[in-house]
Each structure stands twice: as structure tokens, then as C-alpha cells.
Write a structure and sequence with these properties.
Organism (chain C): marine metagenome
Strand content of chain A: under 5%
GO molecular function (chain B): branched-chain amino acid transmembrane transporter activity
Oligomer: heterotrimer
Number of strands of chain B: 2
Largest interface: A-B, 43 and 40 residues
Radius of gyration of chain A: 18 Å
Distance between the termini of chain B: 28 Å
Number of domains of chain B: 1
Order of helices and strands of chain A: HHHHEEHHHHHHH
Number of domains of chain A: 1
Helix content of chain A: over 70%
Strand order of the largest sheet of chain A: 1-2
Keywords (chain C): Signal
Largest sheet of chain A: 2 strands, antiparallel
Protein name (chain C): Leucine-binding protein domain-containing protein
CATH topology of chain B: ABC transporter involved in vitamin B12 uptake, BtuC
Shape of chain A: globular
Number of helices of chain B: 15
InterPro entries (chain C): BCAA_transport, Leu-bd, Peripla_BP_I
Chain lengths: 283, 314, 429
């Protein structure tokens, strides 16, 4: 019982961080950034390159990944979202093509093989019957920290509230003087940063490989669909639902049904409650 | 339905050109064209549903895969004749797709895309888990009956299939149904307001799309001679279909055909120069640039060239 | 231009065209970005160079090698084979494809009937196809021991090392949910209990995209077995590195495809100690005979990027390509597939080390029954499943990576250069 709770909490924290960036773009920018998984991939590889191949301390690697993530987000906004004037379909397709291009690029630079990252913090600790690596403990704690900061940012600051406004009604927000374009820019940059750091954590937990962008993307999609637009708290809760579902299915049922269960959950929720568990009903 | 002379002329030239190909090009190129034809069929099937209505489907590999697996299992495991298994496969695709995707049509916009993506992922997982003795599990099946031998015969079959399906789809879209679907894409509320059932329209488009996908998938697997879940229920396959349709010109039916040929040939032509992973990088890069230059697709580019040509004349 | 000059140019062009079409063309099919593909490709390249330097083949013709990338994708594999057959018109195909991709282009091979040698794919189902339909599969040869042979010898490892030396009496199988995982699981569980006296307590099948293996390992521990038998060919490093990071207190061995190459240590950032796996020969840490060593020396002088040492399939490609050419010499070319296949079946290369048989590259014919498994393996590479391994090399060896980054062979004892040990964090039984 306890091991499941602990494993569920840890995994869900990671999933929540990963899904945050995707959710922001979906809520505020109203687009599916299918290249979101690519942020994770690039973030992971930059972290790997800086901290493992070049030998800098890990913290430098993290900040390097964040910096590249922000840069990527801003560039995407500038070169893809802006020129396509927010045609959602066009942006979605372009980001998908971009993800494939980036994957090919990674293969060119780093080769095809998967790499295991050194643990963020080495060692294990046994808690209530479950073995926990310090690595994932750190990742989960930092994830919660980041999510809390994000929440406060969105709720308390001026920019944050502007973001909320844009997410609810772009035209209305524009009328009340919010510069939607600037907000979008900030959102994309933020999403890139979150994706990159999520990627570094995800990679240090599983592995780094050119195809690694697909699974986190599906997880983010699942969380956003089930959770619905616009809510950080919603995303957090749903990440836990999905994380726990996975751990329970693996521990109690059959590990091979891990992927199937998540997909079934999405489908059931979408059919029963299309706006997601916590979303606003779209009109 | 208005059929101008120039349309029919275009189709005539197009069809004749295709049938003359085996005389003009090498076998290797014919093989590439066969893949292009099948991709064109898939792209057209996507276009029927998503091109005009704006309901972007990320689940077409799901439909194609159902058609492919049905006929593969029937012919290989149960020794059913191909003449029977293919129609059954098409039927199963349409029914299965209907049962599964129709509720999803209630969902709008980006959510629809996500649901269809989830279905594709689900099929990928299910095919491996449920009755792997029938489906071949992750390894898939090899040694599936092929309908033709050799590049030339395979080509004629593929081209005939593509021409029939594309022409039919094109005619279909030129009826009022086609116009209504454009309207759904632009403003579904007004369509409903004018008394039409947008649900019925979407369902019809969906059935046409599933039909095409089912036939395409069934013949495809009999051409390949093998089937694997990674080849069908895969984001890369999805990506190829989508990009083909969009680069060609969504909604136009012909556009996706162009797009399919463009993409397949681009990838093959790069092979002698860039043998490895660089190929995908360049290929993806070119696709992205073309798409960003004109998101309405090559059809739009061609049309603007054409009208500039006419203007220059007069 | 003067007439004579024109004639001269014309004549040399014709001559050039004649010699060009007289070249023997070999096509490589596999991934150009993976260690696996590159091993085969480079093995083939070296063989081609050596043959050309020695004067060419089939009456002094030079061999040219062309490539077709599959990207480890099934559909691309089919396109690649078609490209080699129809555009490049190769005479012979050497494949470094993985199992799935080989299954994809197999129908094409049957259609074009181009002699093909597979150096990595080990799926027994393909050998079954050869048994069932000799004629259709005539051009196909597989010079790595099929996975049935690999799994069978593993049972002996279970009996001789795990049971006899380590005292293990029960096992929990942790297999990936793929066709490969299921096949090996079947082979192992059928034989492990009766032959090695090891009881299979549980079979846990996991999804290849599993992110968190902690629950899976917890389940394994709850089974109460003495050790874990891992079966993993996809994303193997995720499971094994988490095993190391979580310091799971159970011994683990089995099949871990990522641990077959020397880059494993770098790739895992050092989180690979204690992992053991079965490996076809020659494996990492395997002592080489002089001929194979010479090949490795040539390889290392020529290539500076990874893989630093060719994987076993590189050796297969090197020897196999030479044998394919020798068979073609005897059959008068590649065109008569039946004659070529008959000649290929007769190819037999025995490599000795210190006066005893060390490696043998040859092919089983249609009728010889392998004594231990009691079945035939036509067109499959020779292997030996019981000591004293004087017929051929064992189908596999078990290698173990130590926590200091070294790797050695632990079984069979005749080839071992180190002992199977438990990782430092696993308690003694």
C-alpha cells in the first residue's frame, strides 16, 4: 500500500511538471504544440551535453537547458506562430514537422543510441517499504517548487493575470488593454523553459534517445485532455490521477497494460465530459 | 456540380500520363510511385474528413490499420480469399471507426485531434496485447499474400486504385455536400442555423473517409506483404499523411495527391546524396519551409501562378 | 575534334561502361545511424577492400558497395530493399537490419531472389520459413545463431552457474511485452525447471515505454524468487539502469541487448555495473583468435567513431561476405540462386586459437539435426550447444559487466575469463 502511494506521488510530480508547459500553450495560446515533446528532448540533450560531456556541474547543465528551452520557445513563436497568424491547424502541423526535423537533427549530432544520464543525486533511500532514488525525490520536490512558483506567478502578478485573461477570451483581453502578442511570447518562452527542465528530469529518470519526445507528449496530451483547459491545479490533480493509475495498474494488475489504461481513461473522459474534469465548458 | 472542360481535360491528361509511366521511367522509380499512390490514397482519405471541416484527425493511421489488419488476419490466419477479405476489411473499418470516432465528433477543434491521437495510440497498444497469436503482436506478420508480382503490375494496381478513389472523392466534393463541408469548417453554427444537420454531414464525410482509408489500408498491406504495428500505428506515419495532405492543399482532394507524390519523391531522390539521417532532416526542413510559405498548399501556389499567367495574357 | 580522338573517346567510354557494368555490386541494408547497422556495414567494407586488393572476384571484377538506410523503420526497410534491387541492381545484399525490419523486406527478397545474408536478425521464425518452403527462401542466409539456440544454451548457464554455483532455485521472469520477449519467455520457462532445476515463480510482462520500473521491481521482489531473468531488446538500458540506481536487492541476468557493445559503459554513465547478458559471439570481453584480431586491428585503424569495436554482427558481415563471394566463384555468379545457395552451404571457415577450434563460420544444411534441440536449422550459422564445443563455437556466451567498467565472459567455462558475481548491493543468498 505505502510503496504504491510513494511511487505514485513521485511519478505524478514528474508528470505534472512535464504537462505544465503543454497546458500553458494550449490554454493561453490555444494551440497544440506538438513539438512540445521536442523541448523535452532538446532540454535533456543540452543538460547531458553540458553536464556529462563537457563536465560542468549539474546546475550549470540545468540552467543551460532552461536557457535553450526559452530560446526555442521564443523562436518558435517568432518564426512559426507569428507568421501563421495564429491559424491553429497550421501551427499544429508546423510544430509536428518541426519535431520530426529536430529528431533527425539530434540523430545527426548525437547518434542513434540511447544514453543514460547520471543520477541527479546518487543513492537510494528506503521509505516505508519502497525504494526511492534521491534523484527522483529531488526531481519531484523541484517540480512541486516550480509549479508553486508558477501558480503564484499566474495568480498574483500582473502578467500572470493578463495570461489568465488571454486564456479566457483573447478579444476581451485585448479590449481591456492586454497586449496579447506579448503575453503569447512570454507563454511560449515559459513553456519552453518548463519543457526543457521537465526533459532533463525525465531523461535522468528513463533515458535519453532521439525518439524520447513521443511518450512525454502522449502523457501531456492525456493530462491536458482529462484535466481540461486552463487550470494549473487541475493539471496537477490529473497528473496525479494518471500517475497513480499507472503505478496501480503496474503493481496490481498487469504491467503490460500500462499504456492501454491511460488511453482508455482519456477516451472515457472525453466521451463523458468533453471539456475535461476541470475545464471550462467551451461554447 | 459544374464540370468545366478544363477540369476534365486535366483529369484526362493526368490519367493518361500515369498509365504511360511504365514506358517512360525505370522500375525503381515505379516502386517509388507505388508508395506515392498509396500515400495519396491515405492523404485523400484524410482530406475527405479533415480538409474542409477543420476537424483535424490524428487518427487516420487507426482507420488504415484496422483495414490492413483485418484483411491480413483473414487471409493469413483463416485462409479467406482476398476477394472476400478486402470488402470485409473495408466494412470493418467503417463500422469500427464509426463506433469509435463518432462520439468523438461531438468534440470540437483541437480536442478532436487529441482524441483521435489517443485512439491511434490505443490501437497500437491493443494490437500487441490482445490475441497476439492472431495479430502477430509487436513483430507483426510476414508472408502475407501479395496481389501482384513485380513493379509494373503493382504499379498498375496502385494507380488504378488511386485514380478511381481520387476521382470519386473529387466528384463527391464538387457536389453540394462538398460546399456544405467547407461551410462546416468555417462556421458550424451557421450551418446548423440554416437547418442542415452538421452531424449528418460530418458523418457522411467520415464514412467516405473511412471507406477510402479501409480500401487503401487493405490493398497496401497486400502490396507490402507484411504488417507491423510500428509501421501503421505510428506518429511518423501520421505525420507523413498529414504533411502530404497539407502541403498539397487541404480540402482540394487533388492537393493531397500532389503532396504525396512530392514528399515521397523528395525522400527517395535525396537517397543517393544523403544516405543516412541527414535525409530526414533536409526532407523535414523543406516540408516545413514549403508549408510555412503557403499553408494553403501547393494547389494554392499553382492556382496563383495560373491566374498570374492568365492575367499576363489579357 | 579529329575523328581518331572521337573514336578514342568513344572506345574508352564503351570500355568504361563495360567494366562498370561488369562490377559486382553489393548492397548494404540497415540503419546508418545505429551501432548495429554500422558494425555490419564496416565489416562489409573491410571485406570488400581486402577482396579488391587481392585482385577482385569472379575473374578480376571489382566489388562496389552501396548502401540503403532503413532508419530501423519497417516501411523504409521495404523501400530500401526495392531501391537496392531495382535502382542499384545489386547482385548480393548484406543486411544489418533488426528483426522487425528483416521481416518487412523478406517478401521482397522472395520476389527478387537476390542472395541475402542477414547478420543480426536471429528470429527462429525465419528459419522455420526456410524449413517449410526451401525454394522460396533459397537466397536467404542467417549467420548468427537463431534465438532458439541462444535461449537453449542459456538453460545450461542456469544449471551450471546459477543453480550449481550460486545456489539459486527459483526465478522471476521480467520480460518486455514484445514478440521477442514472449518468444524467449516461452523457450526459457519450458526448459528452465526440468533441465536446470530452477522453478519459475512468476512471469512479469512490462510495457516497453514504462517510465518507472520501481513498481515492477517491487513486484519481482514480492515473488520471492532468488533472481530475475531479464528479457529486453528495446529500451533495455532504462530497466537495467534503474535496476542499478534503485539497487534492487536481487541478482539479475538475462538478455539485455544494449549491453552487447563496448559503448554500454559510456552510454549508461557508469550505471551498468553488475548487469550480465547473453551475447552472440564474438562478444565484448571475448578473447579473439588471430584472424579475428587482425580484423579488429584493421577496423580500429580505419574508423574513429563509435562503435569502437564492431559488434558480433560486424564479424559476421566480414566473414560472411567473403564466403558469399567464394560461393559465387563456385557457382559462376549470383544469378543461379540454387547453385549459389548450394555453394554457400558448403562454406566452412574454422578459426583456431592456440591449436583448438575457436570460431567456426559455416551453415547448417537441410537435413542435419542438431543433437540438443533435436531440430534442423537450414541456412542458419553453425553453433554448438554442449561442451566440449569442438564442433563449433557455443551459440552464445554470458558476459558480465563489473562495477568498475570492465566486462568479461563468465560462461561457458571453456571461454570464461572472469567469474559471475553478485553486484555489491545484493545480499548473499
Amino acid at each position: 500500500m505505502f510503496p504504491i502511494i510513494i511511487q505514485g506521488l513521485l511519478l505524478s510530480g514528474l508528470y505534472a511538471l512535464i504537462a505544465m508547459g503543454f497546458m500553458l500553450i494550449f490554454s493561453i495560446g490555444r494551440t497544440l504544440n506538438l513539438a512540445y515533446g521536442a523541448y523535452l528532448m532538446i532540454g535533456g540533450y543540452v543538460y547531458f551535453w553540458i553536464s556529462q560531456q563537457l563536465g560542468f556541474p549539474q546546475i550549470v547543465g540545468f540552467f543551460g537547458a532552461i536557457a535553450v528551452g526559452i530560446l526555442m520557445g521564443l523562436m518558435k513563436h517568432q518564426f512559426i506562430v507569428r507568421p501563421l497568424k495564429g491559424h491553429h491547424v497550421a501551427v499544429e502541423i508546423s510544430t509536428l514537422i518541426l519535431a520530426v526535423v529536430l529528431q533527425a537533427g539530434i540523430v545527426l549530432v548525437f547518434g542513434d543510441s540511447s544514453k543514460i544520464l547520471l543520477p541527479i543525486v546518487p543513492g537510494v533511500v528506503r521509505v516505508a517499504g519502497a525504494t526511492v532514488t534521491y534523484s527522483i525525490l529531488t526531481a519531484t520536490i523541484i517540480s512541486w517548487l516550480i509549479i508553486t512558483i508558477l501558480y503564484l506567478f499566474v495568480r498574483r502578478t500582473h502578467t500572470g493575470r493578463a495570461m489568465q485573461a488571454v486564456s479566457m477570451d483573447q478579444k476581451g483581453a485585448a479590449i481591456s488593454g492586454v497586449d496579447a502578442d506579448r503575453i503569447n511570447l512570454i507563454t511560449w518562452g515559459l513553456s519552453g523553459a518548463l519543457g526543457a527542465i521537465g526533459g532533463a528530469f525525465f531523461a535522468s529518470y528513463t533515458q535519453l534517445s532521439p525518439a524520447m519526445w513521443v511518450t512525454p507528449l502522449i502523457i501531456s496530451v492525456a493530462i491536458v485532455i482529462v484535466g481540461g483547459i486552463g487550470s494549473i491545479v487541475g493539471t496537477l490533480i490529473v497528473a496525479h490521477i494518471i500517475g497513480f493509475l499507472e503505478v496501480i495498474v503496474v503493481s496490481v494488475l498487469a504491467p503490460e497494460l500500462r499504456g492501454v489504461s491511460t488511453m482508455l481513461l482519456i477516451i472515457v473522459v472525453l466521451i463523458a465530459r468533453p471539456q475535461g474534469l476541470f475545464g471550462r465548458a467551451e461554447n | 456540380m459544374e464540370l468545366r472542360q478544363r477540369h476534365l481535360a486535366f483529369w484526362a491528361i493526368f490519367i493518361v500520363g500515369l498509365y504511360l509511366m511504365p514506358e517512360l521511367v525505370s522500375k525503381g522509380t515505379l516502386r517509388t510511385m507505388i508508395f506515392a499512390c498509396y500515400l495519396a490514397i491515405f492523404a485523400v482519405s484524410w482530406d475527405l474528413l479533415s480538409g474542409r471541416t477543420g476537424y483535424i484527425s490524428f487518427g487516420h493511421p487507426f482507420l488504415i490499420g484496422i483495414g490492413a489488419y483485418t484483411t491480413a488476419i483473414l487471409t493469413k490466419r483463416f485462409d479467406v480469399a482476398v476477394e472476400i477479405s478486402i470488402p470485409i476489411a473495408v466494412l470493418v473499418t467503417m463500422i469500427g471507426g464509426l463506433v469509435v470516432l463518432l462520439p468523438a465528433l461531438r468534440i470540437k477543434g483541437s480536442y478532436f485531434a487529441l482524441v483521435t491521437l489517443a485512439f491511434m495510440e490505443l490501437m497500437y497498444q491493443l494490437v500487441q496485447v490482445i490475441r497476439p497469436d492472431l495479430t502477430g503482436g509487436t513483430r507483426g506478420m510476414s508472408g502475407i499474400e501479395t496481389l501482384t508480382r513485380g513493379a509494373v503490375n503493382g504499379y498498375y494496381l496502385a494507380v488504378t486504385l488511386m485514380v478511381i478513389l481520387t476521382f470519386a472523392a473529387w466528384l463527391l466534393m464538387r457536389t453540394r455536400l462538398g460546399t456544405a463541408l467547407w461551410a462546416v469548417g468555417m462556421n458550424e453554427e451557421s450551418v446548423r442555423g440554416s437547418g442542415l444537420s452538421s452531424t449528418k454531414l460530418k458523418m457522411f464525410a467520415f464514412l467516405a473517409s473511412a471507406f477510402t482509408a479501409g480500401i487503401g489500408g487493405a490493398f497496401y498491406v497486400h502490396y507490402l506483404g507484411s504488417i507491423a504495428p510500428r509501421a501503421l500505428f505510428d506518429i511518423n506515419f501520421l505525420f507523413t499523411i498529414l504533411v502530404a495532405a497539407l502541403i498539397g492543399g487541404a480540402g482540394s482532394i487533388i492537393g493531397p495527391v500532389f503532396g504525396a507524390f512530392f514528399l515521397v519523391f523528395l525522400l527517395e531522390w535525396l537517397r543517393p546524396w544523403l544516405p543516412g539521417a541527414e535525409r530526414y532532416f533536409i526532407y523535414g526542413g523543406i516540408a516545413l519551409l514549403v508549408y510555412m510559405y503557403q499553408p494553403k498548399g501547393m494547389v494554392a501556389i499553382l492556382e496563383s501562378l495560373y491566374s498570374r499567367f492568365w492575367r499576363a495574357r489579357s | 575534334m579529329k575523328k581518331t580522338t572521337l573514336i578514342g573517346i568513344g572506345a574508352s567510354l564503351v570500355l568504361a561502361a563495360a567494366t562498370a557494368t561488369a562490377d559486382i555490386k553489393v548492397g548494404f541494408i540497415g540503419s546508418l545511424s545505429s551501432d548495429t547497422g554500422l558494425s555490419t556495414l564496416r565489416g562489409a567494407e573491410i571485406a570488400v577492400e581486402e577482396l579488391n586488393a587481392a585482385g577482385g572476384v569472379l575473374g578480376g571484377q571489382k566489388i562496389t558497395l552501396v548502401t540503403a538506410d532503413t532508419g530501423e523503420d519497417v516501411t523504409e526497410g521495404i523501400k530500401a530493399y526495392e531501391y537496392l534491387a531495382e535502382t542499384e541492381e545489386v547482385d548480393f545484399v548484406i543486411s544489418g537490419s533488426i528483426d522487425d525490419v528483416s521481416l518487412g523486406w523478406l517478401p521482397r527478397m522472395q520476389e527478387y531472389r537476390i542472395p541475402t545474408l542477414d547478420t543480426w536478425t536471429s528470429y527462429i521464425g525465419i528459419i522455420d520459413m526456410i524449413v517449410e518452403d526451401r525454394d522460396a527462401m533459397r537466397p536467404y542466409f542467417m549467420n548468427i545463431a537463431s534465438d532458439e539456440a541462444l535461449a537453449t544454451l542459456y538453460i545450461s548457464f542456469g544449471a551450471d552457474v546459477l543453480k550449481a554455483k550460486m545456489g539459486f532455485e527459483s526465478v522471476v521472469v521480467l520480460a518486455e511485452d514484445t514478440a521477442f520477449g514472449q518468444a524467449i519467455t516461452g523457450l526459457v520457462t519450458e526448459a528452465l525447471a526440468p533441465v536446470a532445476g530452477i522453478e519459475v515463480k512468476d512471469i512479469i510482462s512490462y510495457d516497453i515505454n514504462t517510465v518507472d520500473f520501481a513498481p515492477v521491481f517491487a513486484k519481482a521482489q514480492n515473488s520471492g524468487a532468488d533472481f530475475i531473468y531479464q528479457i529486453s531488446s528495446v529500451n533495455s538500458q532504462v530497466m537495467s539502469s534503474q535496476y542499478v540506481k534503485l539497487q534492487v536487492p536481487m541478482a539479475m541476468t538475462g538478455v539485455n541487448v544494449s549491453a552487447l557493445g563496448l559503448e554500454y559503459w559510456d552510454d549508461t554513465g557508469g550505471n551498468g555495473g553488475g548487469i550480465s547478458t547473453l551475447s552472440p559471439l564474438p562478444s565484448v570481453g571475448f578473447a579473439l583468435d588471430p584472424v579475428s584480431q587482425a580484423f579488429v586491428d584493421t577496423y580500429q585503424a580505419k574508423y574513429t567513431s563509435r562503435p569502437k569495436i564492431p559488434h558480433f554482427n560486424g564479424f559476421n558481415a566480414y566473414h560472411g561476405l567473403k564466403q558469399a563471394m567464394a560461393a559465387a566463384e563456385e557457382a559462376g555468379g549470383f544469378k543461379d540462386v540454387d547453385a549459389w545457395a548450394a555453394a554457400m552451404l558448403k562454406q566452412d571457415l574454422i578459426l583456431e586459437k592456440d591449436g583448438q577450434l575457436w570460431l567456426r563460420y559455416g551453415f547448417w544444411d537441410y537435413d542435419t539435426v542438431e543433437p540438443v534441440t533435436g531440430r534442423t536449422y537450414p541456412h542458419n550459422a553453425y553453433f554448438d550447444l554442449a561442451p566440449p564445443y569442438d564442433f563449433a563455437q557455443p551459440s552464445m556466451v554470458v558476459v558480465q559487466w563489473k562495477e568498475d567498467g570492465t566486462v568479461g565472459v563468465v560462461y561457458p567455462f571453456e571461454f570464461a575469463n572472469t567469474e559471475f558475481t553478485l553486484p555489491s548491493w545484493v545480499p548473499e543468498k
